[in-house]
Each structure stands twice: as C-alpha cells, then as structure tokens.
C-alpha cells in the first residue's frame, strides 16, 4: 500500500547527544525532593501512578488474605464481625478505586504519548493534580482502616444501610468523600487521555490508523467521562443526606433507596469495561509483537470497542435483578447483558486468529497472556450465565458471583497488567529481567488463582452468601472454603515473587538493547530507559514506527530539540493527524500539589464535621484555580515556529481550537452527564418513589421572576463573553468582560435570592433536589465568574491580542453551559409545579 | 463430586419447580460453557504451539466473534426466558403470606385455622401449590432466599415485592438473608415448614430458632 499522506520533509540531522542534552535540560524533573513535589512529566507521573497502585494492590491483597483466613474454618477464628465487615468493604473499595482505576490511568499517562508519538500528555499539570488527589484520598481511606473507622457497608454502599441511621459515625463519610476525592483523578485522567489521543498524535497519524492502544484508551476515557459522574453525583447526594439531612434515599420523605442502586450501577457496570478495555489494549499490542504478524481484524476490533462502550451503559440493571423490577425490563436487560459478550468474543477470536497467523514466541509477557485466556474465558461465560434472570435469582449475592467477578477482573485486568509490566519493564528501567523467577511467579499466581476461585462457584451454588464471616451450621461449605484459602495463600506467594522479580530486574538486570522485543510501535522508537522528553524529534509520515529510532534521535523528525527552552509538542487535527499548531506545555510546578492540598483540606474539614470552616477551604481552592488560569494568555507575539522544512506552525496562544478548549469540551461532557444524572434522579423520585406528591412548595410568582431574572443575567453574561472575545483588543473588549462579570454576579445574587425562597430541603426529596439544582447552578456561576475575571485581567494586562484570545473561548463554553443547564432546571421545576 | 452438592442451602438439590427449572438451566449452561471453554482454549493452544499459518480475518471475527456467540446467546436467552416465565408471580389469587425483614430476623404472617398468624423465623406454607411471599422491610435492604425452592427476592423499605415459590413435598427448608445487612447478616436465617394441605393444619406456634434439621426431610 502506498502512503498517500502528504510528505513532510526531514529536518537536517544533528548530533543526537547534543539534542538529548538540550531537551533533557528542559523536560527533566527538578533534582531531589523538589522533583517529587513539582514534577508534571507524564513519564514520572505515569510510573508513580502505577507504583502507588501496586502498593495499594498489596494492601488490598493482605486484606483478601485476612478474609480467606477467616473463612478457612466455619467458626472463623480471629476476626469479629465488625472488623470483618470493614475488611471486605475495604478490600473491594481499594482494589476498585485505589488499584484498578489508578493503574490503568498510570498506564495511559505513561504509555500514550510514547506510543502516539508525542512528548507529553495534553495537560501535564492535570496529570499531577490527579496523582495528588489520588494519593491524598487513598491515604485518608487507608488511615480510616488503621483508626478502626473504615467503611463497612460493602463496596457498593447500599442505602439505607449506609445512611446515618444505620451507620452513624464517619465510616460511610470516609468512603463517600474519600472516593470522590480520588475520582477527581479519574475525571482528570479521562479528560486528558481523550484530548491527548485526539490531538497529540504523530503528524499524519490518522485516527483510523493509530495503534489499537489509542482506540482502547479512547474508549476507556469516553466511558470514564460518562461513567464516573453518576457515582460522583450519588456520593454527593448521599453525603448531603448524611451531613445535612436532605432526604434523597429516605423513603419517608420522598426518597428511594433504589435511586442509589441505579446511580451506583450506572457507574459500576461500565466500570468493569473501563477496567477491561485498557487491559484488552495491552493484549492487542503485545500479541502481534510475539506472533510477529500485524493484528488480525483491526477494523473489527475498533468496532468491537465502540460496541462495548455503547452496550456497557445499557446493562447496569443486571446487578439489580432481585430488587423487583418490571417483567419486560428484566427481559430487556437480560438480553442486553448477554449481547455484550459479542464484542468481547470478536476480540478474543481476533487475538487467537493473530496467533494462528503468526509464530508465537513464548516469552514471559506471553505467559501472562496465556493466563488471561485460561481465566477470562471462563469469567466471561459465567457472566453470560448471570445475565440469565432465573439463574441470577439463585446465584446473586452468593460466592458464585464472588468467583465470577474475580475471574473477570483478575483474568481480564490483572493478568494483562502483569503482561504489560513484564513487557514494558525494559523501557521503564532499561534492563532485562533475571531468568526463571518470573515464570515461577506466573505459575504460582495461575495455580493459586484457580485454586482459590474455581471451586468457589460450587460454594455459591451450595448456597453460601457473600459477606458472611462465620457459617457454624454449614459443614458442607467448609472443605471448599479451606481449599480456596489455601489457593489464596499460593496466589499471594506468586504475587510476592512477581514483585521480587521486578525488583531484581530493576536492580540487577543487564542493560537492555533498544527495542528488545522488535516491536513495531512508536513507543520503542526511543532510547532505554525512556528519556524525559520521549523523542528528540517528533515522528511524522514515513517515520512513525519503531524503525524510525535513529532518524528521530538525530532530529530529522518534526520540532527537533528545545531551541526555545520550552516544553513544546505538536497538536494535530483529530481525524487526519494534520499538524495544526505547537502547544507550549507548562514545566515543573508545585501548583498541582498545592491545589490537591486545598481540596484535601475541604475533605478533611467535612469529615471532621467542621462545616463552618469549609468556606475557607473553598476560598483556597478558588485561589488555586485562579493561578491555574494564568497560562491561558501571554504577552508574547511569537513568530510561527519552524517545525520542518517548509512547515511553520503557530503557537497555541494564537489558535482558537487549543488543547485547553478541547479539554473544556471533554470536561463539559462529564459535567453534562453529572447534570443528566441529576435530572434522572429528579425524574426517578418524582415518578417511582413512594410518598409523592410532595407537600405544597409555597413557591410563588416572585420565584419565577427571580429565576427569569437569573436566566436573563446568564444570557447577558454569555453575550458579553462573546463580545469580549471578538472585540478583545479594543477598549470595548474590556468593557464587555466587565459587563459579563457583573452579569455573573447578578445571576449569582438572584440564585441566592431563590435559595432564600426555597422550601426546607430536609422536609421532602423534592425540595432537596431543588436545592441541588440550585447548587449546581451556583457552582457554574462561580466558574463563569472566575473565567470572566481571568479574561478581564488578561485584556487589561495586554495578554490577549488580535491573534491571541486567552481564556475567552472557554469562558463562553462554561457561560453557555451555565445558561443551558439553569434553563432546563427552571423548566423542570415549573413542570413539577404545574403537574402537582 | 455430586455428593458434595447436598446441604440445606444447595441450589443443586431442588425441591420445587422454580429451583428445578433453574437447576436444569444451570446444568445446560454448565455443559455449554464447558464445551465453549474447551473449544476456545484448544484453538488458543493450537495457535500458540505452531505456525505460522495462512489465515484470513473473516472466519475469526465474523464467524467466531459474531455469528457463533449470537446463535448461542439467542438460544440461551430464549431458553432462560421460557424457564423464567413460569416463575413470575402473577395476579391469580394464589396462597399468599407476608414476610417482613428487619435487623436481624424475619417476621411472617400466614393464614392459620383462625385467621392470619404472625410467626418469628418460621414460615408455614402448603405443599404442591404456588404461594406468593409479599416482602417488606422495616429498616435496611434484606433478601429472602430459600435455595432449594427457588431464587431470591429483595425486601426493600417502602416497597412490596412479590415473590412466587412452590414446594414439591412437605418438609422443612432453610432460608437466609442474601443481601448484606450489617452485623447480624450471617445469622439472619429462617425456616420454611411445608405442610400437606390435605392433612390437618400444623400448629403454627413459632418454633425456637436453630431447631431446624436439614431441609427436605419429612417433619
């Protein structure tokens, strides 16, 4: 096949070592502990994410061993029930939120720029902010276990059990606030992974021809943008109910415990595929390398990914088959749940076909791929079984489900991650591994895993429910549990050996040559271990495989070196990969950790119940956010940057469709999903929950006037933002920005007036939901206000110009979003009043 | 192996039509899943062991990935729907009892000789006829499960869930709470006493907890 992409002439070759020094000076972390606190480099942070996730995996594994020790005999020798409940809740929560999700985020951050041919992710500071939120949140959750006040309601925290009545104290608050804190990192990662894949690829790399890992991660990130907001909303609502008594789940006051289950599983089921897709991406990357052939069925796999993303949002109800839902809904969700097996089967057969077409060398990563096949196939099949409603009614909430989910998650995530670690270790540490240890670890993990979980299916069929700590009257379950416990210990030994193997490789392995697996992808087109800047010059048409290693190192690719002393990477058109502009990325800064600390202070104040002090923390967060916006404008009017002979591109300051703009759009997708989930909550409670209609709200025409006035103010603000952008260089631009700010303040004041009129939110769920709608509008009003202030400051300081727009385009986006969601909220309330 | 399938909570020793139907579904699915596992792993094994071989995409992704699972799933979903249809509660005036779950126990109301009788931890129902359990909860979510009779159904505060079961023969069957409900979850068990409807009604005095013998044996 001939390359039809427009050619980009090569830059003249330079001495590679000089380029390396020039780039490393710009891209490397600060030395010592300051580097630890201020790094924003995707390589550093990706590895740090993964290392931290592996530590949490170890902690979650120790908790699992405590569970297995307790269940080995029917009288469960040593844990009391209260502690046991904390331990299984923490095992699940840690493995899901502190291991699996951060692990895949770390892999994405670390790998994507390398495999797509960029120097960093689109938002380096956001990588760092995500990491610190994850670390701080994880530490808060972990400390609660040491303090004996860990969450104990099961990892899906069903209400009313997790409500204030049945779980007084702070254990549930630790889960709700801690996990939400950690999820900031998930949203951050989702935004930057989406934007990086769409816009930070090698020049000329078409979307439809990018490495499959890109497609998998794009699917993952899209699912995270849509999947996490329902959980975040549910956590906010439950925390509001616990802390302020707003009844969203309290049946007596118009709430419904099933609303929590819907919100949780709207997140929880896509979550399984969020975890599976990156792992499948690893398989689609590794298998062709060891089979020495290109992947079979690229198009079919991309279609399967898109199918999975779509289908996974249509089957959350299969976690709720026993809550008493309508007959037809059961049939629909059962069929949909079975259907999701199809895109998975497409991938499995594509992988087998790839191995069939090639000649597979069984190196250690391929052993873990074999572990995936041996485990995941069975997990998928038991998943189809559980999708069948009658069988689900028997197996639900038994050890059968425990076995199934471990087959899926260990088979579909842990084994591929072990493959990924062993595959990319030479790039991470520049060394080969020590022989034999890895194979022994693999065998122990495989045997231990199946020893633990294979017979657990039978344990469940014999009636053993989940989450019990003793079973004194059921000797028939004892031998099965004992076998599972022994298997668990073997598996633990395997993981310990795996960790030892990695440590040995890091410390004692011999130096690896470049591209040791002879892989085709761009991630191997660099020196080992991977340098801070990845590639000395960026790949382009004809130089976008691992074979381009030397020309890229000599600076023959695009944008060679760092002659301007700044971190620069190429931004391309999302579909075609046509070079669009050059992004100037931020360097080392403590702003992310400071911001995470301000958010953490808010979380801690709420946990301590010191609500009067919370506004201080919010002010601190706003101060930090203000500092983030500083890089949106610049006073420099730079000439176009020479990227390649005959190709010069503008800086991102001189473009409208910047990475920041794309990121704002991605963030608004998540934000919009959060709002849609809230509307779902309003509709669900209004229609389904008992104890409706609510008592008379006492709303009057005055409130309609207030709401109408607020909407007019928001519309004025949106208009002003447009004027501020289009007239930015003239005095009129500054006046428009000022008008927009005043409009935002007026809108917020009118919202405050509405808040005073609102019926007591603790009285009924309807009022509480209106309170949340109002709060949602207020938060976005503050965001719009901040953006207006940023635009005004930039205009006044001459940091925008005829070619440079600063923050105004993003201000418009958020202003429009504020207006649109508020208008819908007003319409919803009016509708409720009219129908009541 | 099957000797291990005994026990009062075994779904594999069914004692009612719903549990029997599900057990049949399970054995069918186990057979199918076993065959598919062997098929897929054999293909993977052959693919791993030797090669390279000339191959094209279509048989793998279209036939293996699309057509094969679609055909199997269509048959399976149809079969499961057919099994499931027969165990849905419907409005036909069946024998009805009430079950109220609480932390941590079960309170039942069932017809007695002189009108409804409330019992704690023991439910009395007639054999060989369908009965509906009307499930409610006093506090948190619980789940009513008698594995030998059929599937489980949640007891949710503010809701009335109706669950239909039937026992083939008189006897005692054991049940438990399947939804995690706090400190007393593991011990939240109950007993279903199935009596012969043609004989005299049993004495509905609540039995002391823990006196239950293994399920399925005649009283």
Automatic annotation (TrEMBL), chain A:
Which keywords describe this protein according to UniProt?
Answer: Cell membrane, Copper, Electron transport, Heme, Iron, Membrane, Metal-binding, Oxidoreductase, Respiratory chain, Translocase, Transmembrane, Transmembrane helix, Transport
Domain (Cytochrome oxidase subunit I profile) spans 21-542
Q: Which residue ranges traverse the bilayer?
A: 45-67, 87-111, 131-150, 170-195, 215-238, 272-291, 298-317, 329-357, 369-393, 405-425, 437-462, 482-508, 582-603, 609-626, 659-684, 704-724, 736-756, 768-789, 810-831
Biological or metabolic pathway of the protein: Energy metabolism; oxidative phosphorylation
Gene Ontology molecular function terms on file: cytochrome-c oxidase activity; heme binding; metal ion binding; oxidoreductase activity
> Where is it mostly found?
membrane
**Which terms in the GO cellular component ontology are assigned?**
plasma membrane
Entry's localization field: Cell membrane
* Any one Gene Ontology BP term: respiratory electron transport chain
Enzyme class, broadest EC rank: translocase
Reaction(s) catalysed by this chain's protein: 4 Fe(II)-[cytochrome c] + O2 + 8 H(+)(in) = 4 Fe(III)-[cytochrome c] + 2 H2O + 4 H(+)(out)
Superkingdom per UniProt: Bacteria
Q: Does the keyword Transmembrane helix apply?
A: yes
Q: What is its EC number?
A: 7.1.1.9
Question: Does Acetylation show up as a keyword for this record?
Answer: no
How does the entry describe its membrane topology? Multi-pass membrane protein
Family per record: Belongs to the heme-copper respiratory oxidase family.
Name under which the protein is recorded: cytochrome-c oxidase
- Phylogenetic placement of the source organism: Bacteria, Pseudomonadati, Pseudomonadota, Alphaproteobacteria, Rhodobacterales
Provide the gene name from the record.
ctaD
């Amino acid at each position: 096949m001939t390359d039809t992409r427009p050619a980009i002439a090569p830059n003249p070759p330079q001495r590679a070592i000089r380029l390396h020094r020039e780039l490393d000076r710009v891209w490397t972390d600060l030395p010592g502990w300051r580097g630890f606190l201020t790094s924003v480099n995707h390589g550093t942070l990706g590895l740090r994410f993964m290392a931290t996730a592996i530590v949490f995996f170890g902690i979650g594994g120790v908790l699992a061993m405590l569970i297995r020790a307790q269940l080995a005999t029917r009288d469960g020798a040593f844990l009391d029930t209260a502690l046991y409940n904390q331990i299984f809740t923490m095992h699940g929560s840690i493995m899901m939120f502190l291991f699996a999700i951060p692990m895949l985020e770390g892999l994405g951050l670390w790998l994507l720029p390398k495999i797509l041919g960029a120097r960093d992710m689109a938002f380096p500071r956001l990588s760092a902010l995500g990491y610190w939120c994850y670390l701080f949140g994880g530490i808060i959750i972990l400390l609660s276990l040491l303090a004996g006040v860990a969450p104990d309601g099961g990892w899906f925290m069903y209400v009313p059990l997790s409500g204030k009545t049945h779980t007084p104290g702070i254990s549930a608050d630790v889960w709700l606030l801690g996990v939400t804190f950690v999820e900031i990192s998930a949203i951050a990662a989702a935004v930057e992974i989406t934007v990086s894949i769409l816009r930070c690829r090698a020049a000329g790399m078409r979307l439809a021809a990018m490495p499959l890992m890109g497609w998998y991660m794009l699917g993952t990130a899209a699912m995270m943008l849509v999947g996490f907001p329902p959980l975040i909303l549910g956590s906010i609502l439950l925390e509001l109910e616990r802390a302020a008594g707003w009844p969203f789940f309290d049946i007596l006051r118009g709430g419904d415990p099933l609303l929590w289950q819907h919100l949780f599983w709207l997140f929880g089921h896509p979550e399984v595929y969020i975890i599976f897709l990156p792992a499948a991406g690893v398989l689609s990357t590794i298998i062709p390398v060891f089979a020495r052939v290109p992947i079979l069925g690229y198009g079919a796999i991309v279609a399967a990914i898109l199918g999975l993303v779509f289908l996974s949002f249509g089957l959350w109800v299969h976690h709720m088959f026993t809550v008493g839902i309508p007959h037809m809904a059961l049939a629909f969700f059962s069929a949909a749940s079975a259907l999701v097996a199809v895109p998975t089967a497409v991938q499995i057969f594509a992988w087998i076909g790839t191995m069939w077409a090639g000649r597979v060398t069984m190196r250690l990563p391929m052993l873990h791929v074999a572990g995936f096949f041996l485990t995941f196939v069975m997990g998928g099949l038991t998943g189809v079984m559980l999708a069948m409603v009658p069988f689900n009614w028997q197996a639900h909430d038994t050890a059968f489900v425990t076995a199934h989910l471990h087959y899926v998650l260990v088979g579909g995530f842990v084994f591929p991650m072990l493959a990924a670690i062993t595959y990319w270790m030479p790039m991470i540490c520049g060394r080969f591994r020590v022989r034999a240890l890895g194979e022994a670890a693999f065998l122990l993990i495989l045997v231990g895993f199946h020893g633990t979980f294979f017979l657990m299916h039978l344990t469940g069929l014999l009636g053993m429910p989940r989450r019990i700590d003793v079973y004194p009257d059921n000797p028939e379950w004892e031998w099965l549990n004992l076998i599972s416990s022994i298997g668990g210990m073997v598996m633990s030994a395997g993981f310990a050996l795996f960790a030892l193997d990695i440590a040995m490789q890091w410390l004692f392995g011999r130096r690896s040559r470049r591209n040791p697996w002879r892989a085709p992808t761009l991630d191997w087109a660099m020196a080992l271990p991977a340098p801070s800047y990845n590639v000395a010059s960026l790949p382009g048409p004809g130089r976008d495989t691992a074979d381009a290693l030397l020309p890229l190192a000599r600076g023959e690719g695009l944008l060679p070196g760092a002659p301007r002393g700044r971190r620069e990477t190429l931004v391309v058109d999302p579909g075609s990969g046509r070079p669009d502009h050059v992004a100037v990325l931020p360097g080392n800064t403590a702003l992310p950790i400071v911001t995470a600390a301000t958010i953490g202070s808010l979380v801690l104040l709420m946990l301590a119940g010191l609500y009067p002090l919370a506004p201080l923390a919010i002010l601190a967060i706003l101060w930090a956010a203000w500092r983030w916006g500083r890089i949106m404008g610049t006073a420099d009017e730079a000439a176009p940057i020479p990227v390649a002979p005959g190709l010069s591109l503008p800086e991102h300051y001189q473009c409208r469709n910047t990475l920041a703009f794309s990121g704002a759009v991605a963030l608004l997708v998540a934000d919009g999903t959060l709002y849609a989930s809230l509307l779902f909550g309003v509709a669900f409670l209004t229609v389904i929950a008992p104890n409706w209609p609510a008592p008379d709200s006492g709303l009057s025409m005055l409130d309609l006037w207030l709401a109408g006035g607020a909407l007019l103010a928001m519309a004025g603000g949106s208009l002003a933002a447009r004027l501020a952008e289009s007239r930015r260089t003239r005095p009129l631009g500054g006046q428009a920005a000022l008008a927009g700010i005043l409009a935002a303040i007026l809108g917020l004041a009118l919202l405050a007036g509405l808040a005073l009129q609102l019926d007591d939110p603790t009285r009924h769920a309807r009022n509480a939901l209106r309170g949340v709608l109002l709060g949602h509008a207020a938060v976005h009003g503050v965001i719009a206000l901040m953006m207006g202030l940023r635009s005004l400051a930039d205009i006044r300081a001459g940091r925008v110009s005829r070619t440079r727009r600063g923050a105004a385009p993003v201000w418009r986006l958020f202003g429009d979003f504020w207006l649109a969601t508020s208008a819908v909220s007003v319409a919803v309330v009016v509708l409720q009043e009219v129908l009541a | 192996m099957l000797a291990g399938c005994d026990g009062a909570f075994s779904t594999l020793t069914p004692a009612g039509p719903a549990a029997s139907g599900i057990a049949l579904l399970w054995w069918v699915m186990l057979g199918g899943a076993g065959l598919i596992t062997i098929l897929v792993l054999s293909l993977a094994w052959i693919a791993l062991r030797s090669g390279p071989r000339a191959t094209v995409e279509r048989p793998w992704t279209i036939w293996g990935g699309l057509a094969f699972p679609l055909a199997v799933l269509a048959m399976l979903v149809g079969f499961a729907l057919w099994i499931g249809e027969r165990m849905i509660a419907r409005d036909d005036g069946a024998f009805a009892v009430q079950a109220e779950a609480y932390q941590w126990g079960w309170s039942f109301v069932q017809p007695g000789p002189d009108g409804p009788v409330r019992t704690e931890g023991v439910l009395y129902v007639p054999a060989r006829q369908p009965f509906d359990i009307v499930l409610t909860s006093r506090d948190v979510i619980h789940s009513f499960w008698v594995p030998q009779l059929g599937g489980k159904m949640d007891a949710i505060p503010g809701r009335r869930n109706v669950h239909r079961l039937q026992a083939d023969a008189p006897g005692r069957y054991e049940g438990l709470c399947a939804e995690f409900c706090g400190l007393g979850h593991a011990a939240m068990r109950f007993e279903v006493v199935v009596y012969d409807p043609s004989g005299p009604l049993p004495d509905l005095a609540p039995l002391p907890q823990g006196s239950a013998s293994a399920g399925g044996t005649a009283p």
